[in-house]
Amino acid sequence: MAKKKVRVGLVGYMFMGKAHSLGYRDVAFAFPDVKAVPVMKEISGLDGEEARIYAARYGWERSSVGYERVCEAKDIDLVDISTGNDSHREICLAAARNGKHIFCEKPMAMSVVECKDMIKAVEKAGVIHMIDFNYRTVPAVALAKQMVEKGMIGTPYHFRAVYLQDWIIDPEFPLVWRLQKDKAGSGAHGDLNAHIIDLGRYLCGEFDSVCGMMETFIKNRPLLAAQTGGLSAEAAGDMGAVTVDDATLFLAKFQNGAVGTFEATRFATGNRNGNHFELNGSDGSIRFNLERMNELEYFSRKDKDAYQGWKTILVTDPTHPYIKGWWPAGHIIGWQHTFVHQVYNLMNGIATGINPSPNFYDGLKCQAVLEAVEESVETEQWVKVKVDY
Ligand code: SOE
Fold this sequence. Notes:
- By secondary structure, the protein is α/β, with parallel strands linked by helices.
- The chain folds into 2 domains: 4-134, Rossmann fold; 139-292 and 294-333 and 366-379, Dihydrodipicolinate Reductase, domain 2 (2-Layer Sandwich), CATH 3.30.360.
- It has helices at residues 15-30, 48-58, 68-72, 88-97, 112-125, 139-149, 181-184, 188-203, 337-352, 360-379; strands at residues 4-11, 36-45, 62-65, 78-81, 101-104, 129-131, 156-164, 207-215, 220-229, 232-241, 247-254, 259-265, 274-281, 284-289, 295-300, 311-314, 383-384.
- Strand 1, helix 1 and strand 2 form a beta-alpha-beta unit.
- Helix 8 packs across helix 10.
- The two termini are 40 Å apart.
C-alpha cells in the first residue's frame, strides 16, 4: 500500500529551517519503515529573494514571503514553525485555524499564556502537534531513558545539568534577536535551559519547585549589521541594550523527591555546545556530554565491588534507539541526525493520529518551569511550578 504523504510548509529558512529541512529530506532515506513520507512543498520567510535561494538549496518545491500562504494553502498538511520565538503563537493559531498539523521550534512560546492559547487552538482543530526538543532523540539520550525505565539506576536522587556555550563572549558581538527580550522572551534561559529542563522531565520526572538566579554580564552591544550564519553576525556602529539574561542558574526539587541543578550560559569560554547531564540513582548513574554524543557513561552499584567503575557505552549498535537508520556499529552519527529522528516520530504521529512526544503539552510544562524560575529570580524565593491546564 502506498504510504501517506505529508505535504510540508516550512516557515523560517535560517539555522533551524536548515536543520528541519534536512530532517524532511533524509527521513525516508534513513528509515524506510517511516509510516508517512514528507513532501517538501513550500518554504517561506521574511525576504522573498532569500526564500527562493533557500528553496533551491534545501530542496523545497516553491517559496513565499510571510507565513500566511503556507498556513492557508490547500496542498499543505503540516506547518513547521522554525521562526524566532515571538512569532510562534501567531503562526500556530493561523495554521491550526486552517486544520494543519504543527511542528514548532522550542521554546514553545514567549510565555505560559501563549502556550495555553496554542494548545487550545490545536485541541480545537484536532491536529497533531510536536515540539522540537531534539536532544531526546540523540540515541545515547534515548538509551538513557530506556535504562532509567528498566530500573538500571534505581531511584533517582540527583539530576545535574548544564548547557554551556560561548558564542557571545566577545562584548563586540552584535545585538542579535536572541539578545532582545521582545523577540526571544529570554536569553540563555529559554534558549538553553529549555532543553535541559525538558531532559530533566524526560529522564527524572516532573518539577515541583525552583529557586533561581540570572545575570546579564554585557549590558550594551553594537547593533546588528548582518546575520552571517546560525550563530554568527556582523556588528554596526551604534549601541543598543541587551534585555535578556546571559546566564541563568537554578536549583530544583522534583515531584519524586529527587533534586536538580541547572545552569545555562553563553559565557562559558571554551564550551562551544556543551550540553551535559548526570543522573544519580540508588543503584547507578548515567552521564552524557553532547560533544561526545555517541557515548553514554554508566556506573552500576550492582557490579561486584572490586570491579565497579564508569563504563562508556558506544551507542552505535543496531539495537540502540534510531541507529538502525544509519551505519554499521562504530560508524558514529552527529547533531543533525536528531532532526531526522524528530521528523521520523512526527511522520509516524501524523500517520497514526497519535500525538508524538515531545508535544505541545511538553512545551507548556517546560515553559511553566522557565517562568517559575523567572518569578523566583524576581522574588528571591523558591517558587512552586504550576501547570494548571
Ligand atoms: C543557540 O544557542 C542554539 O542553536 C539553540 O538555539 C539550540 O536550541 C541548541 O540546540 C543549540 O544552540
